[in-house]
Amino acid sequence: MPVSLYDTMRPVAIAAGLGAGCAGQRGGSLVVSALVGLVVGVIAFLVVAHTANRWFARHAAQPSLFANDTHEPTSAGEGLLAVAYVAVFVVLIVTTFAGCHLGSWLAHEISF
Predict the structure, then answer these.
(1) Is 74 inside a domain boundary?
(2) Following DSSP, what letter does each residue of 31-81 receive, concatenated?
(3) Does residue 1 sit within a domain?
(4) Total domain count for the chain?
(5) How big is the chain by its Cα radius of gyration, in Å?
(6) Local confidence pLDDT in tens for the 112 residues of the chain
(7) Quick check: is 85 in a domain?
(8) For residue 45, what are the domain limits?
(9) How far is it, in rounded angstroms, from Cα 37 to Cα 18?
């Protein structure tokens, strides 16, 4: 089974969000923040990956309008795929980062 760059970048995005979201924390706050961030990241991974895979399948099933044209028109379709890859990466980082901050907030509120 071949592994693409897209397959490897999704867990990297979650790890980057965890690293940024848990930076500077220690002890129980770090554990709660990391666990909540990981759960939120995995849920976002499942939702976003499923949505993106459905969009990619729909995009692949559509016949190309520019099949016999020059390379210039077909690169527009490749540009849409690149934008989708980057969007998935950014969404996963942001949601995992937000999950870490939610976990940090929860740990702070529980301590009172």
Answers:
(1) yes
(2) HHHHHHHHHHHHHHHHHHHHHHHHHHHHHHHSPPTTTTS-HHHHHHHHHHH
(3) no
(4) 1
(5) 18
(6) 566 767 778 888 888 888 888 888 888 888 889 899 999 999 998 898 888 888 877 776 766 555 555 444 455 567 777 788 888 889 999 999 999 989 888 888 876 6
(7) yes
(8) 11-62+70-110
(9) 6
